[in-house]
Amino acid sequence: QVQLVESGGGLVHSGGSLRLSCAASGFTFNNYAVGWHRQGPGKERELVATISAAGTYNYYADFVKGRFTITRDNAKNTVYLQMSSLKPEDTAVYYCNAKGEPDYWGQGTQVTVSL
Question: Are 60 and 71 contacting, i.e. CB atoms less than 8 angstroms apart?
């Protein structure tokens, strides 16, 4: 059974940090680039960061550059998103996405940043 399970979300004060995890199972994770996306209240889903299958290439949206870091551990079938200097506008449900044929999505984890 294919699964992507996000964890690590929660409530944090502005300026704080969180680390999200995305654990994969049921498919050849090492063959997939992975992206983190988010959807804030009343907003469309947007891409936050991606990492290539081997972990050698990263992409970051401008609004998280210098604050968020995406990494992966293929031995653990897990991708991480380290989030620092969090802002209230980072409040969203964060989803991981294994990009391929087919795409796989997790169920999301809520991140709430308070003032």
Answer: no
